[in-house]
Amino acid sequence: MYYKHLKLTIPPVLDLSLMSQLPEKGHVPINTSYINPELIEFMYSRGIRIKNADVFCSPPGFELGIHVDGIALNNNVAINWAYCDEKGSVMQWWKPKSEEAKVVDPSAQKDAYGITTTPYALGWTEDEVDFLAEVEVRQPTLVNIGIPHGMKNKTNSYRKALSLTWKYENGELEWNDAIHLLGDLIEES
Ligand SMILES: [Fe+2]
Questions:
Q1: How far is the CA of 181 from the centre of ligand 1 (A)?
Q2: What is the CATH number of the domain that holds 85?
Q3: Ligand 1 center to residue 112 CA distance, Å?
Q4: Domains contained in the chain, number
Q5: How far is the CA of 72 from the centre of ligand 1 (A)?
Q6: 172 closest CA partner among 137, 133, 140, 146
Q7: What is the DSSP string of 59-119?
Q8: 148 CA → ligand 1 middle, Å
Q9: Residue 74: how many CB atoms within 10 A of its CB?
């Protein structure tokens, strides 16, 4: 319920030089016109429509704070591809120790560069959560973005992670629907 590796061989971006044109650090929404039409058509054939494309650019040692994507805990998914010259970056999931959701002011969560590290409405520090799971995202990975999660670039290389979110029926693509609709692509682990 946190992640599944996918046997999805369609490259999400045809011209990967796009990645080197992005900043070394930050959250960069990109136009979905950059996404390979073949991938969009394949997902459409499963009833899934593309919503957003974002690239998370992380310099060596960068840690993205624990957050959920959205304004409340949810069960939405993204499909992520990570581009990095080294292994060793992980996406991690956490369970809050308190049931009470912690609302944070994103403007108060700045790193040494003055860049917002947790650009979402709900955030936690590591002493407020218990560890659930982690995975190295390299091949396409289905990830749950509605459970508190974060990312650590433990390498000496710059990391660019493309994250695609999806619409299904009248809402966002959620975990159980994704497992059903993409079940034949899931790698046993
Ligand atoms: Fe996230």
A1: 22
A2: 2.60.120.10
A3: 20
A4: 1
A5: 12
A6: 146
A7: -TT-EEEEE-SSSS---BEEEEEEE-SSS-EEEEEEEESSSSPPB--GGG-B-TTS-BS--
A8: 8
A9: 17
Handedness of CA 16, 70, 50, 144 (dihedral sign): positive
Cβ atoms of 36 and 11 closer than 8 Å: yes
Q: Which of 113, 121, 22 has the alpha carbon at shortest distance from 67?
A: 121
CA of 14 to the centre of ligand 1 (A): 24
What distance in angstroms lies between residue 59's CA and the mean position of ligand 1's atoms?
17
137 CA distance to ligand 1 middle (Å) = 13
Ligand 1 center–CA 145 separation, angstroms: 5
Distance 161 CA to ligand 1 centre (A): 11
Q: Is the pTM of this model over 0.70?
A: yes
Tens digit of pLDDT at every position of the chain (189 positions) = 999 999 999 999 999 999 999 999 988 889 999 999 999 999 999 999 999 999 999 999 999 888 888 777 899 999 999 999 999 999 999 999 986 666 666 555 554 444 444 445 678 888 899 999 999 988 899 999 999 999 999 999 999 999 999 999 999 999 999 999 999 999 986
What separation in Å is there between the alpha carbon of 100 and the centre of ligand 1? 19
**Could you tell me if 13 and 163 are in contact, meaning their C-beta atoms sit under 8 angstroms apart?**
no
